[in-house]
């Protein structure tokens, strides 16, 4: 679909990474592999934190919802891009684009909020262990997660409502593989996006408050850890905290680089690579990061896999004996 045709339609043309069809197919396959790996990893974490009775603490409760969030976030952008790339059409309808804006902004804020809740959980567990069960009771955790998801929905609604007020004209070409808000602002035919800027400012202030909360939590955690005389005790604390620090650092650094970097009318390869770093890689790598140093998670995964293998072997044997 050409830019000339897209001007007469209500949708947009996603330019993606290249105009070469062979490269588009290769990139679509790479995206598909990352999507399948990320989906499988997050699904495994959701399964084991739901079924394993030893993984029912608030830490794993929040991790389960983070994996649900990551699985959903991957599904917002990647399948549509893979489909349009293989079909040699970058077209996305106006309604589909607005849906992407809603879910992407909602999930992005929800991830920030749930990472903040997870850092507070680690702070209470390490710095206030005697009060942990009272402060992080199951009821309070449920309310916290409900508030996190609700705040994400409100953020997505505000972004979508303000984006709907923007008028688009001319060549409605988005130099991205999904409907990213900054790219939509660049193709607005008038300066009518003050509402989006106001929402962005408001969300940025809230995100900074979350960052301060996370930094305070880990400042207190490290201060407490340094006073632990046992090397084994310090190792146990780091095994649960370091994965979360890695996830938070990766998410914030890529998002800040992408959104605070000055935009240009001709996006570079760096712009597109950064978009992958804050959209596709975090939800794909999160299950790996959380599993590397967490002995409980690794043990649960092995137990799940071996149990399925054992069940499958018993089922096969029973079928053979039946005949």
UniProtKB/TrEMBL annotation:
Recorded topology in the membrane: Multi-pass membrane protein
Gene responsible for this protein: Or14j5c
Subcellular location: Cell membrane
Entry keyword set: Cell membrane, G-protein coupled receptor, Membrane, Olfaction, Receptor, Sensory transduction, Transducer, Transmembrane, Transmembrane helix
Family: Belongs to the G-protein coupled receptor 1 family.
Stated name of the protein: Olfactory receptor
Domain of life: Eukaryota
Spans traversing the lipid bilayer: 25-49, 101-120, 141-161, 202-225, 237-260, 272-292
Domain G-protein coupled receptors family 1 profile residue range list: 41-290
Taxon lineage: Eukaryota, Metazoa, Chordata, Craniata, Vertebrata
